[in-house]
UniProtKB/TrEMBL annotation:
Keywords: Signal. Residues 1-23 form the signal peptide. Residues 115-136 are annotated as: Disordered. It comes from the Bacteria. This is BNR repeat-like domain-containing protein.
Amino acid sequence: MNNRATGLSAVLGLFAYASIAAAATSWPSISEQLAADQVRPGSALENLIRANQDFDLLRPDELTTTRPELPPWLKVIWRKEHPKGNYTAEDPTGGYPHVLREAHEWMLSHQDLKSGTPENDQFPAGNPDPDAPILSGEVRISGAQTSPRSESDIRVNYWNPQKIISASNNISGAGVQAQFYSSDGGATWGQTTLSLVSGDAFQSDPTVEWTSDGKAWSSTLGINSAGSVLKLRTYSSTDSGVTWTNEATPSAAQTSVDKQMHWVDHSATSTCKDYQYIIYHNGNPAFITTRNATTNTWGAPIQVSGAESTGTAIGSDVKSNSAGDAFGFWPTTSNRRVIVTKSTNCGTSWATPVQVANTFDGYDIGVPSFNSRRILIYISGGTYRSATKNMVYAAWTDLSGEAGCTAAANEPGSNVASTCKTRIWFSRSADGGATWSAKTMLNNQASLNDQFNQWLVVDETSGAIGVVYYDTVADAGRKKTHLYYQSSFDDGVTWLPAVQVTTAQTDETTGGQDNGNQYGDYNAMSGIAGNFFPSWTDRRAGQKEEIWTAKITDQACTAPAAPNAGTATAIAPNQIQVTWSNGTPASTTFDILRATGTCAAPGTFAALATGLAGSPYTDSTVSGGSTYAYKVAGVDGTGSCVSAQSACVEATATGQCTLGATFNGIATATNSAASTCTNNLGWSSAVAQCAGPVSYNIYRDTTSGFTPSPANLIASGVSGTSYVDMDALNNGTQYYYVVRAVDQSNGVIDGNTVQQSATPTGPIATGNLVEAFENGGGFDNAGWSHAVVSGSVDWVWSAAQSQTPTHSWFSAEQPSTSDRVLTSPVLSALANTTLSFFHTYAFEGTVAQCYDAGTLEISTNGGSTWSVVPDAAFTAGGFTGTANAGFGNPIGGKRAWCAGTIGAMTQVSVNLGAYAGQSFQLRWHAGDDSSATATGWYVDSVTVSNAGTASACSTGINDYIFVDGFDPPVR
């Protein structure tokens, strides 16, 4: 019966003890323990917990500092079964196997403490997983899962690379190890499970291997229902992984086996061909057991660690080379060393261990992306032997080692701003493991990112080295990972740049993750002859943890000759044609590289086009008036070997300037505190590379690192270098902003991704301003004004015409040059702010000959400058003509209302959304030329409507009441 717990709550207890311990001064009560693990009343797990409350077996500090993620009752169980263990505070493991975490998780998800029912087998042929996506070669080995598959191993059959096997943990599912297999080079996969040996309730720590007879192999830890007995089990398959049979228990009488790794000697020239090696730790020491390929039996486990290793030898690996030399690797948790031992007699005996390097941290490391399970410091080894080389390699994860990042106390933990980070470290030996180089980091980026769960493989046909690892470098928030691959073709002296393998990120910090395992303790990779298959835990799109792979082709090659340079010619507007000829030896395809500038003084060359069949190539992405330099590189038939670059050719493009403005992006984002619910944005002016002028688009999102798009565009056409965002903001929400410059002459938007963020507080001033012009002073609301700009006659309060009951404002036409303005208070616009007013007018002239006129103007800088509201903003009652500039009218040349007849007032409607985020004033501007008159202009019932809500930024404690939406709020 599979008695699985359901929902996220089932895994929350896995690390509840860490938070309990942080504030505890005494051992938790039984009720606290049962609550932390959400134990069902009357279950077998409850009885087990109640029977193991002998906390006097534990040291007092184990409550708060030593393995606080393990519940005390589980520690008691282990102590009772293994009373002679080395339970010291100096060892970060505390003397408890790492796999007890899995034991705890299995108990929580199987509270009857019975083995689960294995999942149904799935077959690749004729019944593939219909949901399995293939993303740029990525394949979901495990298929879609409802229970997590964390931690995996993978191995290509070196004698038939079309056959591949893999395996993963399956703790909260059936509990038995999940096995995956492919017979078509990884295109399709089937899956099954191992069986349980008598006494085992579940399994953990998967490995897989092949021998030259086509037999597949797998190892696992067999664990009893109390989590107190750990045995090494091996299984074999004669049908390439479809079915599995228990083969042996190589650990013999040992019952504390943990974190094993498995290797087969694959070399046809080795005297130890098909010998199998498994390395693990039992208690503190490291052991290796060997399966003799002649007798087909496992030898007694041999302890390989000694006085050089203090603490626990957890996180080991074992590899062999073409001469039959085998190497065992492990780190130490207390004296923090990387150790290697060597056997030259097929595992019969092992030499005195040699120190490879020191580590900064010991055992495990917490980082923001992996802070529950934590990064296990383990070693991934490799070796290559030829007539001229005797190489051995080791790679591991550790702190980066800068000042303040050299000890466990410096770990980042959950602090995304910590300057301490983790990196993949590497060391090499050129003399068969006797001496080792100084450790180096493979890829030490400057950013605050973390790398972990590395795996190293050596291509036994060429000696090339490949390494995969997780890295958070693509996530500014330091919590999402991609898998990356790096390789070396010079024995680890230099490394090629990291290549991103995954097309989607994994986030193990969001809801629904497998809190017990997260990514698991290790990834894997296997391959031969330049083709590699990593396996990794993947949770893209927030799904359950699943196992994925991808084919990586990475082969050494002989570069073709550099192509012969031809010409670069401007053949049409915004087009330059580049020509070249093939070199000898010839290239199969060609890559074009381009730099801005001349060949004598170019900028940085970057790839423009790749995979071209031959000359010529037309570059249609050039900007008129700019000079460009070009080079051509050739690529061989494998696609992996690139020639030297050709000589440089250059040309100056004709046609339109198509360059975007030079812009540094947003510089500041601040909230305006409690006065209004707004965020204030600022930036330095962009510089137009074409004709300009430049305006700005504003993008906003609640997610850091968002991609600007029309969906998150909140304002466009913004002038100036500041913007006030007050559009439906929520109190306490952090908003992220990108500002991009737009050259109005060609519409090109710059592509900067600079982000700033701010969190608004305070009330949002929204509502309606209604001005009926009915009080005794001519204005209902403060802030209005009227003035004579030139001439002697001003606007007056009038009862002659009105839309509201009795009054309006009137501008009488004059027979001489004059103008006057009626000006609103300072207002604030949102994306949906609109203006409405009513008017009637009679101006001298006709629509075609508009001698006297009235226009509507707006200022966004406190009245320093004014511009006519554009025709496109009107939704009703827009301008009827353009004021004549020939007879001295002060508003000559401006769009305006012309001619007309005094009568019933008509409505004008204007969309002010283009001014969103800005303070503004409106003014009605009447202008007369130097001769005849008509009646003039009546304006009434001005309404500025703002559809924002007063509660959008309210804390819910003190709501505000708005008098007119733009005056200060009152309680």
